[in-house]
Amino acid sequence: MLVLWALLTCVLVGVLLMVAITPSLYTVIGVALSLSALGVWGLLSARVLHNLRLPISARDFYRSGHVTSTDLSACAGGGGGLSPRPPMLCRVTLAHPGEPAHIREVVLLSQQAAQETAQPTAPAAARPQRPTLRVGVLGSGTVGSQVIRLLLEQADDFAARSGARLEITGVAVRDVDAPRDEAVPRELLTDDAQAVATSNDIVIELIGGIEPARTLILAAFASGASVITGNKALIAAHGPELYAAAAEANTDFYYEAAVAGAIPVVYALRESMAGDRVTSVLGIVNGTTNYILDEMSTKGLSFEEALAAAQELGYAEADPTADVDGLDAAAKAAIIASLAFHTRVGMNDVEVEGIRSITADDIREAHASGCELKLLAVAQRREDEQANGISVRVHPALVPADHPLASVHGGFNAVLVEAEAAGRLMFYGQGAGGTPTASAVLSDVVAAAAHRVNGGQAPRESSYADLPILPPELALTRYQVQLRVADAPGSLAAVAQVFADHDVSINSVRQASYVDVGDELALVTIVTHAAPVGRLEAAVEGLRAQERVAEVVSTRRVEGL
Ligand SMILES: NC(=O)C1=CN([C@@H]2O[C@H](COP(=O)(O)OP(=O)(O)OC[C@H]3O[C@@H](n4cnc5c(N)ncnc54)[C@H](O)[C@@H]3O)[C@@H](O)[C@H]2O)C=CC1
Ligand SMILES: N[C@@H](CC=O)C(=O)O
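Above are the sequence and the LTNE7NMQ SMILES. Below is the predicted complex in structure-token form.
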């Protein structure tokens, strides 16, 4: 383009000179020719000048990863207001970092050159230097220590996958002198969490809990950092605030580790299912409770014995409340439902029942019914004549022994997603533990780093559907009801009539007769079809009032039929 422009300039000067020195050309045609040449030259000059403009803004310099935050202030000072044309990237070299007056070199790179910079396979000698991103880690416990170990051990792989060298600049801990994993270099430790949160390109929050995690993450966003966390409790309580802070800072917010450890279920719901309508999600999302129920089921342990085994193995914490009472699973259910239904769902929207009251008898009864007892997280869309909205809950439920969730053993997690177009999808894997969870954290780190190098950003919060949260009585489920009834003609008919009176359809009936202190009784186990919880509870109340029913022995939800 520049060569053409130079040629045309010469031709134009020649034409004008010729017209000037040749009086015979002082005609209308001669003047028209001169003016046309001048016009074409003007247009081409404008195009050339446009291409010569500096291509991207100072902020894009920074996000391109080709400059550090120190260089950004230099860019902003030395050439803020640069025109925004993303197809080019730049590299800035400063003689004295941080001083705009000392910009030594601004190299414009084409997009292709930038991609070559990110090529992992280039021979070492020819490989252009990668930008460095500063990474700060908040917390060095079970997960944090493994994230740090893997980041250090596999630094070259992470550089090749993300396009940037990831340099851990600091690890915030409560006590620098406390004994800890040798994989975490002592010189990185600091008790200044605020400094770690505000002086890095990428901040990984792994301290857990609400405060100071929330304040530190907000400070990290305000400083322009991308944030990665595994903190499901924080997201379930303050998700919208964190999303808004990320959007305001125009940086990434990722939290794959917050749901089901190593299983990429956040990615699946947020990105893979973006082209579909999810109708339900059913999952085992707490490894500790699954381990406890599995020990009770396979070894016949009591709840207390199984809990003690879980604590000994490090699955359950000294205070197992969050796991055993279903709160950890409820936070995960809230996140799952928010992503699946594009609706804000918080902890308070989730109906929660834990597993503390489950006894060895409950497990035996489950087996007798051909089922396993599992703590399930359920997120369900209802769109029918009676209700339009979503139901989100966590509770123990019977799962038929041949259902995929029934064979999820030990501390494993599994999530079953149903969508209109895709049908059923099953995700299975390790839901907890240092290295499996670190795997999920690090996938987020690579994504956030790649965005800082190449541009692009994590999906923002999607809450456009804004569906109503249904009250618990409108949740659709099946019940298994066990009754002791008089073993006499008409008893089953009377029981069936109670269900019919409450518009609940029976799916199956099983009866075992026996003699109980002089009375001829039958133990009847009834499984219903799906019905709203309100109607099922009313039917159970009706059964208690029915004179042929000696006792309602148990009611239990059934999922996965
Ligand atoms: N452990 C697991 O299997 C999984 C954990 N997560 C989540 O990952 C996060 C971290 O979990 P874990 O590593 O298991 O916890 P952890 O309790 O083992 O580690 C947290 C660390 O942060 C430190 N810490 C607490 N407050 C601090 C502060 N103000 N400044 C500096 N350090 C502080 C603690 O001393 C501790 O060393 C939590 O949000 C948790 O919910 C998510 C999935 C699985
Ligand atoms: N406590 C959780 C692990 C973290 O999410 C579990 O047992 O699954």
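The longest helix spans residues 28-52.
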